[in-house]
Amino acid sequence: MLEAVLFDMDGVIIDTEPFFLRSESMLLKEFGVDTELEYHFRYQGTTHEYMWETMKNEFKLDAPVGELVERANVIRNRLMEEDGLQPIPGVIPFIARLHEAGVPLAIASSSPLTDIHKAVKALDIEKYFSYFVSGESVAHSKPAPDIFLDAAENLKANPENCVVIEDSRNGVASAHAAGCKCIGFRNLDFPPQDLSLATVIVTDFSDLDADYCRALID
């Protein structure tokens, strides 16, 4: 029995991945570090703190992790203001179909809670969700299962009866570790992530609805 659907946000609901990738690359260049775009894919689904702590150590960056996170956020926010925030095609109608079918929904994202609320308000989709949880709010970020276990608990759902929507290797691994079914979203505009632990992999949301998610559970 389907009890809840848990959405990642970046790259699943909003098309923010290009802004993350560009801001990370731009900040590293300020420290004289040039990276290929593919380098940054490994951090999709992780927290900002984990990512910048890892890059600080790898590239010996002469700045505190907190400062790196804040500087990257400033660059990313500027890019988003310049280009505008856009939803992933088809995802908002999918969310609306689930809501209309009475399926409890949550957003479980590694992004800060302030970013989550800013995004859902900008897209006018806050009304569809019953719960929001950030990677900052749990003991261990993705690929650990904590964030999806937290979301399931707060929706009073059994993790085994939840479907997670994810687009990253770390996110899919987190859903798998939590015991949830997982729809892996493969964005064809980017090189493919390893989504092999997903229950099923899709490239668009057009045909997805509550019955599709129920079938993954049943």
Automatic annotation (TrEMBL):
Q: Which InterPro entries match?
A: HAD-like_sf, HAD-SF_hydro_IA, HAD_2, HAD_sf, PGP-like_dom2
> Which is an annotated Pfam family here?
HAD_2
Where is coiled-coil annotated? none
Query: Please, which domain of life does this record's source organism belong to?
Result: Bacteria
Annotated GO MF terms: hydrolase activity
Q: Which UniProt keywords apply?
A: Hydrolase
Q: What name does this protein carry?
A: HAD superfamily hydrolase (TIGR01509 family)/HAD superfamily hydrolase (TIGR01549 family)
Q: Origin organism of this chain?
A: Trichococcus patagoniensis
